[in-house]
Amino acid sequence: MESAFVAISSDFQVxxxxxxxxxxxFDRVAGFDQVSEERSRYAPKEFLMKRNENVLILNxxxxxxxxxxxxxxxxxxxxxDKQIFGKDPFYTQKREKTLFANFVCSEPCNGGFCSSFGGPxxxxxxxxxxxEGEKFHVMVSEKYDRYFREFKKETGTxxxxxxxxxxxxxxxxxxxxxxxxxxxxxxxxxxxxxxCISCGACNFECPTCYCFDLYDDGNERKKEWxxxxxxxxxxxxxxxxxxxxxxxxxxxxxxxxxxFKKSKDTYLCTGCNRCVEDCPVGIDIKEVITYDYNGE
Amino acid sequence: xENEYRPHTLKMSKMTEETPDVYTIEMDSKNEGRAGQFYMLxxxxxxxxxxxxxxxxxxxLIFTIRDVGSVTSKLKNLQFVGIRGPYGTxxxxxxxxxVIGVAGGIGIPPIRSLLEEMMDSGRQQxxxxxxxxxxxxxxxxxxxxxDWTKSINLQITVDRANAEWNGNVGFVPALLxxxxxxxxxxVFVIGPPLMMINTVKEALKLGYREDRIFISLERRMECGIxxxxxxxxxxxxxxxxxxxxxxxxxxxxxxLFL
Lengths: 296, 258
Prior knowledge:
A: alpha/beta, three-stranded antiparallel sheet, B: Elongation Factor Tu (Ef-tu), domain 3, seven-stranded mixed sheet, about 15% helix
């Protein structure tokens, strides 16, 4: 792994998951052995979508390689791609110039439900790294195959077997068909609204949430992460079409489980559980999937 | 990749007050958009607003704007306007033999551009326009009505008349009964939600085909290119699948007319 890392380092600015003051963040790393296998505190969305940037100037970005992103976080980019790749020039340029080396978790994490969306072995990746003891199995996309030419190619069913084992340890939620079961007038939205404090953490933590606000700030026009939970999200001179917090919470879940499924034929969720972990009032997106809407 | 967010700067050649809160601006440049499409106009330091194009493809760029927000209240005083676009879908008038355009209030500019495009293609005989405003003083393009009437069946109504008014009084949907074109005509509807609901209902009642009714959607839009996520109606982003969309594609959406 180290020799491939060195080869990649000569072509890319290399970042990796590292522990700093008790949190795992992404920073420059000089060797593969420095990369933490712990999940980063935040989904590393900022590599492709800065929290805040001036859209009037499109700078030429440098090539970056990011080691240690977890599969659930990486999958968020593949999902976002379906809506914004090739359209947003800032995202698109960074996406094309960033190599992600994702770590496949060897064991399910506490609360995560990635098996509901296929599990940690992704079918789209740049470098997908799976540790087996001291050995690393690496799946490489054609685009980056050159860095691994001298290595032995994985044959057989290792990944499939691993994936099956992992997913049988973490029983998938009954997500299939949620777009038909979910109910527009469910009591669930009102219940969530009575607890939700509109902080937007669920959106900002989410590796798939791509919405942003565009506003002028002096001489700059800024693009900044936005949240569909906030009341200003849909307000315009014609009024606000989602005045109620229950309506805004419903929008978030409908986008993930109904609208994206209809327009892109996939759910806009990776099962990372970040929105659950960082919700200050305990709203759990898993309940949106498992809730008995018919029983209401 | 081009920076789609970066606006071009165009010189404004003319500004006309239409009503106390509506004005028309003309640019010193050609319109590259189709009737129904919109541009993002901007005021530096304030922001951007999506504005439908009011002139036909290839003519001078014209916008008719209601002064309601931070951007729209300042555009008229500019010499140079920031602009990007055109974005979104246009009226599919080329696909139909007959077209009835129905506009309520400030929905008229995209019907004006439709009229110009059909006239420029020599198809004015295939178009009728129904237009309603709250009061006679809310009607825009009054100076054009005379010309338009020479080439098309133009019906105008107001919700509330004043002393000088001797035209139709009543809501726009009722004007559909004054259409001469066949029930196979496409019906293009644009205006406030309630006006669109009632016009669609009336059109269906009169026997126009649902799959030939097109409506113009309106939502808060920021990027115009389908990436910022603000303007969704169900699975559609208005800036991408709209603003002009076939009614049968969105009729069941719970947030359609809000």
